[in-house]
Amino acid sequence: MAFQRWSSLLAASLGIFFSFFIVSCFAEKAPYKSFAKDAKTAPSSGFYDYIIVGGGTAGCALAATLSVSAKVLLLERGGLPYDNPNVTHIDGFPATLADTSSTSAAQLFVSTDGVFNHRARVLGGGSAINAGFYTRASNDYVREAGWDPHLVEESYAWVERKVAFRPTVQAWQAAVRDGLLEAGVSPYRGLTYAHLHGTKIGGSIFDENGYRHTAADLLEYADPANITVHLHATAQQILIKTPPGQRAKAYGVFFRDSKGGRHMAYLKSGPKNEVILSAGALGSPQLLLLSGIGPAPQLMAHGLRVILDHPMVGQGMSDNPMNAVLIPSPRPVELSLIQVVGITDVGSYIEAASGSLDLAWLQRTAQDFAKAVNQTLQTFTMPINLTIPEAIRAPELYQNPGVQAGVILEKIMGPFSTGHLELQSRDPNDNPRVTFNYFQDPRDLQRCVQGMEIIKRVVESRPFYPFRYPFTSFQSLMNIMLAVPNNLRSKHMTAAYSMEQFCLDTVMTIWHYHGGCQVGRVVDHDYRVFGMDALRVIDGSTFYNSPGTNPQATVMMLGRYMGQKILQDRNAR
């Protein structure tokens, strides 16, 4: 029996290998004109081996992998990243996040904590709108997840051949690197994708010319004959059979195109065909709820039929708190996003970015955000301020449209604090209501304070001296940050001299939120939804903690990793 099983697995692996060899000869380059089409051109119904909802960081890797030996449909509610200059080039990063239109690649949402946030609405997902840092999870994280380390290594390498690049470190980033070392964040690890304590330079999905390479690029691995991508396709509901006395089973997805046209995608008959949700930490639990899978009282309150009472759907939502200081520079600084990181021993990661900053534009953007929030049904769990005040602490900065400046920030690892997600309406285009409970656990607040102390030492270090004005105190930098409209939370006078209150009042997102469909609570270790057949969730919603200093490498890896696992099982005899 053992020999037979080994032989079947070997045969399956060889089959996958040769399939990839064949696909490599016929792979199509982006923008995939033969298989990526607007959903308005989609048939009213179609049949597939796998239907993947969400063409994001995990979904693109997963779809490309499965297409090697199965018919795959990938549904993406946004468009292509390749025809949007704000997405494709590093210069457009702030403009993408500032766009509050209904077609923006970055859909604004505000948590009930009063913190601005975004969810991707574009092929490539978060990798198309983020700051581009590329780094792997730690070996401890891989071990705790129960993943096969050899397959993890192969999967990371597969991703990196398409999207990972070595950044060119210039003066500002070099000063941050050297300042971290002087501040005691050692040893120096050089350039590495590995998650190692100390100071290091990570990879980037921006190439040497500043062009972004997203998870959508991984579709170049796909077999064009086996994959269909529908763009501007919004999943409305998972189609589920509930035969008496048997487990509920997914058999398709109902979706609409941008004009509201109805389309049905069905699974072909076969015991191993599946619907897979890769819609992210907001989209995946939201679609489960809309499909009748979740806490029964919440579903009934929205008039939804309860298919499966699943109390843990939408629970365990976490967002890693980010706090920062803005540092005006007396000398020009390069345009840079995240390149250098200090992985500290106190549970925080120190990172930096730089460029020319128009703070008046930033204030107008915050006002636009507040106006957008006013037009929703948003509710909050704490006192907030929907009227963005004029700057009072640093007015001269707001009068200069091209301030040369940088930001040094910290991300809290974990975090310990958790919240929840629930439906705001039955419309899948609406954001769900999300509470992250930033700093609810005092250990997160302690990490923030310790991380800010390290940032203070970096700013006051000798290598950083050329990038701060004479007589600049860290207190004055905190005051600048308190004047920047970076969230809707009320500011307290004590935040000017209490680091704890500063952390609470100026908290932001670093867009690494996760949870809602966690392993062991909503899905098993093969990412199958408990109590359901033919339904999995494979994305960051399954995480308990954010992997490494940036999760995107690991989410892409997970798509590839699970695609291989699924194919091995499919091809095994």
TrEMBL record:
Disulfide bridges in this chain: 448-503
Alphabetical list of InterPro entries matching this protein: FAD/NAD-bd_sf (IPR036188), GMC_Oxidoreductase-Related (IPR051871), GMC_OxRdtase (IPR012132), GMC_OxRdtase_N (IPR000172), GMC_OxRtase_C (IPR007867)
Gene3D superfamilies: 3.30.410.40, FAD/NAD(P)-binding domain (3.50.50.60)
Taxonomic superkingdom: Eukaryota
Domain called Glucose-methanol-choline oxidoreductase N-terminal: residue spans: 280-294
Keywords recorded for this protein, A-Z: Disulfide bond, FAD, Flavoprotein, Signal
GO molecular function, one term: oxidoreductase activity, acting on CH-OH group of donors
Pfam families xref list: GMC_oxred_C (PF05199), GMC_oxred_N (PF00732)
The keyword Flavoprotein appears for this protein: yes
Binding-site residues for FAD, renumbered to this chain: 76-77, 122, 511-512, 540, 551-552
Keyword Flavoprotein: yes
Cofactors, names only: FAD
Recorded family membership: Belongs to the GMC oxidoreductase family.
Protein's name in the database: Protein HOTHEAD
Organism expressing this protein natively: Sesamum alatum
UniProt lineage: Eukaryota, Viridiplantae, Streptophyta, Embryophyta, Tracheophyta
